[in-house]
Amino acid sequence: MHATTIVSVVLTTLLASVRAQNITTGELGNATVVDNNPPGATYLAVLPEKQFFNPSDPRGNVKGSVSATASPDGIGVVYSVSLSNFPTSGGPFTYHLHVDPVPADGNCTKTLAHLDPFIRGEVVACDPKLPQTCQVGDLSGKYGKVTNGSLVQTYTDLFSSTRPGLGSFFGNRSITFHFANKTRITCANFTLLGSATIPPSTGSNTSATATPTVVFAGLGARNMASAGMALGAAALALLL
Q1: Which residues contact 165 (CB under 8 A, 6 or more apart)?
Q2: Element (H or E) spanning 101, and its range?
Q3: d(Cα 136, Cα 97) in Å, to the nearest integer?
Q4: DSSP string covering 6-21, please?
Q5: What is each CA distance from 197 to 39, 72, 108, 192, 194, in whole angstroms?
Q6: Per-residue pLDDT of the chain (240 residues; tens, 9 = 90+)
Q7: How far is CA 67 from CA 47, 78, 90, in A?
Q8: In a 3-state reduction of DSSP, which class is residue 123?
Q9: Is 148 left (phi over 0), alpha (psi -120 to 50) or beta?
Q10: pTM
Q11: How far is residue 72's CA from residue 58's CA, in Å, rounded to a whole number?
Q12: 3-class DSSP state for residue 186?
């Protein structure tokens, strides 16, 4: 009886520890790694001369571009961000891939919401330590906001796609920049620069319409798993 009680306490503690990991992810689970991007596919978004928020701003618009190239091994996309001349106030500034392209009139509000094929939402902030739980399009949430007047950065996002047809494909979409209060400053469409031969789709982790397995990464998750195994072993030993 005593051993059974101890086992019950141990298992209750383990369950509470797991539940404590209150991590927000999408309704369809975590974003899946894209591993079949056509190598060589490159898209470029160049910001316009006039600012959407204040077209008459004497300082002009944010200057620069964002290029995105499929990784040589087809896993993820390499983003190269080179931007300057952000507003002198209103930061830190955020930027995201948005669902719709910028229309001919340049109205950034018409780019609609963030690219979010796994239906995560943006009410709870993205945790950069767990990028798979973030919106696919939340680039600044995963890789850092713009905290001063410029940003030069290169990073690989494993969840973006250069393969047309997938929910995480951004080539026919836009990138939009915001003040800290979410007001839109400027936006630009992606344009295909370099094409590539699209290989046949392989694997099950390539469609945003499928329900992926929720897998947590990072040190915290590994520690939780180790603790779980230790508690489980202790409980088993008490039963023997």
Answers
A1: none
A2: none
A3: 8
A4: HHHHHHHHHHHHHHH-
A5: 8, 13, 32, 13, 10
A6: 444 444 443 344 333 333 335 788 889 999 999 999 998 899 999 999 999 999 999 999 999 999 999 999 999 999 999 999 999 999 999 999 999 999 999 999 999 999 999 999 988 999 999 999 999 999 999 999 999 999 999 999 999 999 998 899 999 999 999 999 999 999 999 999 976 555 554 433 333 333 232 333 333 333 433 444 443 444 444 445
A7: 11, 8, 25
A8: coil
A9: beta
A10: 0.73
A11: 42
A12: strand
Two tokens, residue 240: 């023997």
Per-residue tokens: 208: 């945003």
**Helix 219-239 vs helix 2-20: angle between axes, to the nearest 10 degrees?**
170
Q: What are the tokens at 17?
A: 């520890």
Peptide bond into 92 cis (omega under 30): yes
Amino acid of residue 44: L
Token representation of residue 12? 């209750």
Q: How far, in Å, CA of 194 to CA of 162, rounded?
A: 11
